Structures are given as C-alpha cells and as structure tokens.
Amino acid sequence: MDEVEYLRVISGQRQDWCARLLYLPGLRCLSLLYRVGVGVRNRMFDWRLRTVRTVAVPVVSLGNLTTGGTGKTPFVAWLTQWFLNRETQVALLSRGYRALPGEVNDEKLLLDRLCPGVPHYQNPDRCASAEKALHEGAQVLILDDGFQHRKLGRTLDLVLVDAVCPWGHGYLLPRGLLREPPASLRRADFVILTRVDQCPDAELAQLNQALIKFVPADRIASATFQPQSLINVANERLSLDSVRGKRVWAFCAIGNPAGFRLTLEQAGFDVAELQIFADHHHYTHEELQEIGNRARQANVDLILTTCKDLVKTSEPMFYGVPVWGLEIGVEIRDGKELLEQLLQGLAL
Question: For the structural domain made of 59-225+331-344, what CATH number should be given?
Fold first, then answer.
C-alpha cells in the first residue's frame, strides 16, 4: 500500500472490506504501541530523565501535532522575515526529512529561495546544528518542525494546527496522522490555527473550544495562506488577475493536497484534475512527462503546483503546457499582536 492509498484508508475515503477488516484493525494495534512509546519518551523529558541542551541565543520552535500539512514552510519564511526586518541575524535548523543522499530536501530548496542568504542547517542532530550556527554568528535560531524534537531547549514553542484536519483523523500514527495526543499542546507557548478560511464557522468555534482545554484563549491566533502570484522556474511572475478562470491541471506532493486544491479553487481556477503524490516525493523524468501528457490531453491552459514542488523541476513547460507554482503568503488574523509581543522580546 503506497502513501496515497494509506491516506485514503485512514481518512475513511476507502471503505472496502480489506480496509475495514484488515488494514484498520492492524493500524489501531500499531497506534497503541506508538502511544506507549510517545508517552514514555515525553515522561522522560518531563521528569528530566533525558538531558535538554540549551544554547546562548533565543530558539523559536515551530512545529505541529500531525505529520505535515499545516503550512510550516511559509510560516518559517514569515518568521524569518520578521526577525530580518528587525536586523536580527537568523539561522534555520531542520532535520532534512526525505532528502536524497548527498542532496537537500524540497523544504530547504524553497526556503533558500524565500529567504535568500539566510543560513539553513539540515542535520538530524539539531543540537550540533545549533552550535555551528552560533559559531557563525546567529542571534536567533528557528527550529523547523521542532515540537517533538525536545533535545534542544527552546525559548518559544509555537505550534501550528490545521483547522481543516486538526487531529489527524482522530488517531495517533499509523492509524491516524497524530504524532502525539492533543493534550501535548499544554507544552506549547502559542498555538496558531491555520487555514481558518477553509473551515466552517461552527467547526471553527468547536475547535477553539477544544483548544482552550490545553492552551489559554489569549495564546491562540488564527492564520490563512493567501495566494499572491504565480512563479515559474525562470523566476518570472504572473498576477492572479491575469490568469483567473483559466482551466488548469495541478499536481503536488504535500501533506494536505485537499487544502491545495481548495486554495486553487478559491483563487478562481478551474481545476481539471489534481494529481497527488506522496509527501516530499522526488519526481522522476517519466512522472513529469506523464503529468504534461495528461495535461495536454485535458486541453488545459496551465499546469499548477506548489512552490515546494516547483523547486524539484527545472522545466518551464511539460509537453508544451506552461508550468507555474502558486506563491503563498501568511496572513495572521486574531492574536497577531500578542504573538509579535512574544517575538519582540527575542529580537535584538
């Protein structure tokens, strides 16, 4: 079972007998074992049985409860730019998840474009990366995907929760997408609900009520990811107004493909089809050719993807169809003032 089929099973989209009677019971058993392991690990940190390494500069951790899909990459870029605007030298620390041997992953490729000149250290040992960043002059460290990485101490723990799928289909891995139970949010200093514009008001109100069990109401902000423009591999840009209403073929390899499709539709595109690949997928030449061939057969005007996927190709066209990435910006709504107050205390 590949990752796309796996997501269909745990989300309930796949309802055949094999999913209901074979896969799901087995995944539930594995989730129970995973819960025990996560609980033991967290208790060891809570009871100081495992060492937490602290460094001499502020560390801002940005993470989530689920495996991907909350919008960390554009938010890391927003945080980085916030500190740069205040003349604070920033360094990014990440694990380098699913990078090919000898290469960097898609998130680093995208962040290098969004945050040019900002040092980005990819290493599973984030403590070693922190020491290297300090030696090279960093004044603030941003720990990407750091909520579960408790070995490195942090000054501020920010957690993103996707309003569209906040609890990872209700189960811990592998039956669901939760890395740890929702009660772990008690460790967070601040929670940011993302994609609130894609969530019905009644569901959003229920979600806020659930969150305040773990986090004070004044420590919860909301955010949206707003489409800004289209960009291609040659760094050429198109305004959204110039292409609104166009028929497009889309593809992506991200944690929340449904959110990407909804963003495209809200931006005014007519989406012929969205091809979904596993999160962080590395495209082969044959796969990109297939995308272009199917797009041409569908008689679309454009091929659209995420900027995180765009950096994994060097071709401006597939089978004669122009390929563009959708640039996304972060817009923080309720709670922005308090969040900036917390950040201000860390800037030089």
Answer: 3.40.50.300
